[in-house]
């Protein structure tokens, strides 16, 4: 029986996935590694330093920078990202998400946040969703990032639930892989190609329907 829902943040609750893309793109262009949205799909759900490594790999520049220089580049991206997220208000909650959260609460489902982002708590605050997510997995406490299941397993643990009693909602391929490996029912938001490993997917957050998801869990 489903008793909890573990949410990704960026690209599920709000469209910060776009801000991450813009900030990385600016840094990529500055260091001579331009990339497009298709490549950016590989960065979704991936930690800040791992994202930088992937970009450097794309440009064959992994060995061009010392660890200190890499940290400075990641810091620069984050400063740009923090500028972009200053504009976030509750009106930036993606369509359907507030209703979906309300539906979860009225079914007494417990909610947790499992985001790789260290900016997650600040974003929840700007969205006015801090109260809804009393349970947040601290990404700094993790040994491994998505696609490793650790973050979702921790999310369930913090809720006092078993992974199989939870649904995981994600927009990243790495995130769906993590939810599946945790043993949760995976709900993807995105296109059919990148969400092909999800137990159920919808193209837009507005199409998330708790009844339909619970039905699909029962039919699995
Ligand atoms: C994830 C995003 O939620 O958080 C990634 O999908 C991002 O794109 C990661 O790199 C880490 O975020 P932050 O805010 O700590 O740099
Ligand atoms: Mg995401």
From TrEMBL:
InterPro entries the record matches: B-phosphoglucomutase_hydrolase, Beta-PGM, HAD-like_sf, HAD-like_SPP, HAD-SF_hydro_IA, HAD_sf, PGP-like_dom2
Active site: 8 (nucleophile), 10 (proton donor/acceptor)
Pfam families reported for this sequence: Hydrolase (PF00702)
Binding residues for substrate: 8-10, 24, 43-48, 51, 77, 115-119, 146
One of the GO biological process terms: carbohydrate metabolic process
Keyword annotations from UniProtKB, A to Z: Carbohydrate metabolism, Cytoplasm, Isomerase, Magnesium, Metal-binding, Phosphoprotein
Residue ranges that the Swiss-Prot or TrEMBL entry lists as coiled coil: none
Source taxon at top rank: Bacteria
E.C. no: 5.4.2.6
Cofactor or coenzyme needed: Mg(2+)
Catalytic activity: beta-D-glucose 1-phosphate = beta-D-glucose 6-phosphate
Site feature Important for catalytic activity and assists the phosphoryl transfer reaction to Asp8 by balancing charge and orienting the reacting groups, where: 115, 146
Residues annotated to bind Mg(2+): 8, 10, 170-171
Broad enzyme group: isomerase
Cofactor note: Binds 2 magnesium ions per subunit.
A GO CC annotation given for this chain: cytoplasm
An example Gene Ontology molecular-function term: sugar-phosphatase activity
Keyword match Metal-binding: yes
Localization of this protein: Cytoplasm
PANTHER family to which the protein is assigned, alphabetical: FRUCTOSE-1-PHOSPHATE PHOSPHATASE (PTHR43481), GLYCEROL-1-PHOSPHATE PHOSPHOHYDROLASE 1-RELATED (PTHR43481:SF4)
Family statement drawn from the similarity comment of this UniProt entry: Belongs to the HAD-like hydrolase superfamily. CbbY/CbbZ/Gph/YieH family.
Name the UniProt record assigns to this protein: Beta-phosphoglucomutase
Species of origin: Jeotgalibaca ciconiae
Gene name of the encoded protein: pgmB
